[in-house]
Amino acid sequence: MGSLLIVTGPPGAGKSTVAKLLAASMPRSVLVEGDAFFGFLANGAIDPWLPESHAQNTVVIKAAGKATGEFVVGGFSVVYDGVIGPWFLDTFVTTAGLTEVDYAVLLPTVEACQQRVEARSGHGFTDLAATASMHRQFSGAELEQRHLIREQGLSPGESADLIREALSSGTLRHSITLAVHNATRYARDRAAVVP
Prior knowledge:
Layout: E1 3-8, H1 15-24, E2 29-33, H2 35-39, H3 54-73, E3 77-81, H4 86-95, E4 100-106, H5 110-119, H6 128-140, E5 148-149, H7 156-169, E6 173-175, H8 178-193
C-alpha cells in the first residue's frame, strides 16, 4: 500500500507548485491534478464554487477519490493537488478506500491568493470574487490547526520543506474511523444495486 498526501487550499494558494515539488521528491510517485476531474464535465457544468454545485461537486470528488485510491493501493506515493475542503475530506478518503491520509491546507492571505490568480497566464480560473469566497470557506472551516500552512512569504520550496517536516512528524495525518468508512461504503454499495 502506498500513501496519500492531499495538498489543498483556495485558488492561488500555491497548491500546484508545491504539490509538483513534493511529488518530484518522492520515489515511485503520482501527482493527481484534481482540476482535471472538473475538466471532464463537458456540458451543463455548474461553477464549482456556487452553492448549487454541491451535488455535482460530490460526484466529481468521488470520481477523483476512486482514481486516486487506485494509485495508493497500487503502492504509489500519491500527491493530490486540488480543492478538497474539510467538508469533503471524509467523502474523498472513504471513496478512495482509505482510512488515513496526510492533509495539508495552504492558506496564505486572501490578498496573496488574489494576486496570484490575477497574475496567472494560461490558467482557466481567474475569478477574484470566487477566490475570496473559497478563501473564506477554508478560513472558516472546522479544521485542526496542525493541518494549516499559513506561513507568509515562503517560497514554494520552503513550503514543500515545511510539509515534508510535518509528514515526518505525523502532524498532517488525518484518520477516519472504520465505522465511518464502512458506513460510507455500505451506503455507496447499496445505492449501486437500487434500480
